[in-house]
Every structure is written in C-alpha cells, then in structure tokens.
Design a protein that fits this description.
The chain is mainly alpha-helical and 98 residues long. The protein has two domains: 32 residues, no CATH class; 40 residues, no CATH class. Helix content is 64%, strand content 0%. It contains six helices and no strands. Helix 2 crosses helix 3.
C-alpha cells in the first residue's frame, strides 16, 4: 500500500488545531523563536532598568502635551537636521539593512 506524503504545513496546522490553550501559547513562543531568533532576547530585556527622574518625567509629560496640541516637529524638518530629504527617507525604507 502506497503512503501519501504529508505536507508539513498541513501537519503543523492539524497539530496546532488539536492543542489546548496552554500548549498553544508555548507553541507560539517556540515558533516565534524559530522565525525570529532575536525575539526571545529582546523580550527578556527590561523595559526600563533605571529609575526615571522627576526632571525626565516632567520632560516626557511636556512632550506628550505638546504632541496632543499638535506642536510636534514636522518629519521633513527633523530629516533636514540630519541632511536628509523625504526622498532619502523613502529610499532608506526600500534598502535592506546589512
């Protein structure tokens, strides 16, 4: 009797469909690590490992308030400070990183 080759993608879907939610969470973590090996390392980095000073908190609050009021700096102006144009920005977005 001839056995049919099982498509690995289909087999993975079938296995995932049969998992309990706890198993599924573990599987998702493993798959994420396989697809993006840096994800686990990045996920383990503390969000903020130094205390935030009152001065820093006041600065952040002022920046958020400025943003809400529409007082932000236009993207083009920030790029200009670095000697870049919007065309440069678009080209960088299409250029793969090494």
């Amino acid at each position: 009797m001839e056995t049919m080759a099982i498509d690995p993608r289909q087999q993975a879907h079938e296995l995932i469909d049969g998992m309990a939610s706890g198993q599924l969470a573990v599987a998702v973590g493993l798959l994420r690590d396989i697809v993006d090996p840096d994800a686990q390392r990045l996920a383990s980095i503390p969000y903020e490992d130094e205390p935030i000073s009152e001065e820093e908190e006041r600065g952040a609050a002022a920046a958020r308030a400025s943003f809400v009021l529409g007082e932000g700096i236009p993207h083009e102006e920030v790029l200009r400070e670095f000697g870049l144009t919007m065309e440069d920005w678009e080209r960088m977005g299409r250029t793969p990183l090494e």
